[in-house]
Amino acid sequence: MRSGTTDGRRQTADDQSGISSAVRRPPSVSPPQPATLLFIHGAGSNADFWHLQHKAFPQAHYVNLPGHGRGTAIEPVPPDWLGEPHTLIARYASWVVDYVERAHLTDVVLNGHSMGGAVALEVALAKPEWLRGLMLTCTGPRFLVTQQLMQMLRDNYTEAVDFIIAESFGWASTPLTYAQKVRRDGTRKQMLRTSQQVTLADYEASLTFDVRDRLGEISVPTLVTVGEQDRITPPLLSRELHAGIPNSMFEPQQGAGHMLPMEAPQEYNALVANCLDMPYNKSE
């Protein structure tokens, strides 16, 4: 899906047309364009979730969904992009499509974590011309959100966050290292900084999401990955994705949970790079 690079956030007009200053190539033999990688965070999170991917993919786009913060690759941020959180995955997907088109991105690979994966799926079902591939991280075609958790999010946000964090990391067979403790504490603090309104809206959106009967419509190359110890979006959901998406690969990761990009960053970043190299055929 790319040629010798993992970025491709911007291309010049010459690059986009396949014309160099010295050689004009016929369209039929133009080299493939490098992929544009766009990361979509999960529920109650923001673009900082991907901090261990920034160094590996510095030219990628790391977006904050509406209501989740200001950081995007487009500055200044259009006022209508800050907005309120949504209670429908499809509305977040429309926002992502708007972002890509305002930024004039092409050959985009969407990488979504958890709820962000649901957003990526909704975008893929709309079949935009610029979509080149998907990476679906610790997500599913539906979510196993319980009414008990929804009530906890309404009644006692701190308790709900503590429950989510406790379930989000893989089981520790030995005492946690200092770095692991810092990582979990930092994730908890970040989620508590996200307003209760935003996180509740995200979980309401996840509660009603279900595209199991439409997975066969997705034709772009797709890499599905999950931590084998994920208890938030268990591996069975990733296996549903792989079984339903025709052009997909499945790469489960041992020893990690729902926070796979944090728990095993080296292995995960290698998967992202491999995703950018997946075979791609624009013919539908």
Walk me through the structure.
The chain has 284 residues and is an alpha/beta fold. Helix content is 37%, strand content 12%. It is built from 10 helices and 6 strands. The chain has helices at 13-17, 89-102, 115-126, 147-155, 157-168, 178-193, 196-207, 235-244, 260-263, 265-276; strands at 36-40, 61-63, 108-113, 131-137, 222-227, 248-253. A 6-stranded parallel sheet has the order 2-1-3-4-5-6, with helices on both faces. α2 (89-102) packs across α3, α4 crosses α5 (157-168) and α5 packs antiparallel against α6 (178-193). The longest helix is centred in the middle third of the chain and has 16 residues, at 178-193. It is globular, with a radius of gyration of 19 Å.
Helix content: 25-40%
- Strand percentage lies at 5-15%
What is the molecular shape?
A: globular
Multimeric state:
single chain
Number of strands: 6
Would you tell me the overall average pLDDT?
Answer: 84
Distinct helical segment count: 10
**Structural class by sheet pairing and helices:** alpha/beta
**Ends distance:** 16 Å
Rg (C-alpha, Å):
19 Å
* Topology as a string of helices (H) and strands (E): HEEHEHEHHHHEHEHH
Low confidence ranges: 1-31, 71-76, 280-284
Largest sheet, if any? 6 strands, parallel
Strand order of the largest sheet: 2-1-3-4-5-6
